[in-house]
Design a protein that fits this description.
The chain is of the alpha/beta class. The chain has a single domain, classed as Aldolase class I (TIM Barrel), CATH 3.20.20.70. 38% of the residues lie in helices and 12% in strands. Strands 1-2-3-4 form a 4-stranded parallel sheet, with helices on one face. β2, α3 and β3 form a beta-alpha-beta unit. It is globular, with a radius of gyration of 15 Å. It binds flavin mononucleotide (FMN). The site of flavin mononucleotide has 10 residues, from α5.
């Protein structure tokens, strides 16, 4: 992975941000947890500008319950173990929730998916 990132850095130059998207847990008992993913990312810290934290999708197991900001706890654990900015995503659909996540230092940035599909002006309305 480090070799791949080194090649990408060589292509894009020093000023272009390189981020990786990770699945912080597979929701399997005894499977992968955010600490495991953080440990895998630690040797790559110097190559990365941010880590974007999602969950699931590794095996056909779904989370038991999906609720607003449901992936933020995993992002926060990865943030605690890495010296790289962390992006949180997943049902973060209002300004106060996003503010809370940033102010409480659970993540450094917020990503938004479906609200932007529903309303292309969503981001502008947050300002
Ligand atoms: C229909 C659909 C397809 C998606 N496809 C991908 C994908 O290919 N790769 C990926 O990393 N995330 C994928 N995601 C996850 C989104 O990138 C995002 O993390 C997710 O929608 C949660 O953010 P949101 O609640 O703001 O939409 C998908 C989500 C949806 C709803």
């Amino acid at each position: 992975m480090k070799d791949v990132l080194t090649v990408i850095r060589g292509e894009v130059g020093k000023k272009y941000p390189i981020t990786v998207r990770v699945s912080a847990t597979d929701y399997v008992k005894g499977g992968l947890f955010p600490k495991d993913i953080a440990r895998m990312l630690q040797p790559l810290e110097s190559e990365l500008d941010a880590v974007h934290v999602s969950t699931g999708g590794l095996v056909p197991v779904q989370p038991n319950h999906i609720y607003p900001a449901y992936q933020v706890p995993q992002a926060a654990i990865i943030k605690q173990h890495l010296r790289v900015p962390v992006i949180a995503v997943g049902l973060i659909d209002n300004r106060s929730l996003a503010d809370h996540i940033i102010q409480d230092q659970l993540a450094d940035m917020i990503a938004i998916g479906r609200p932007l599909i529903e309303d292309p002006d969503f981001a502008a309305q947050l300002l």
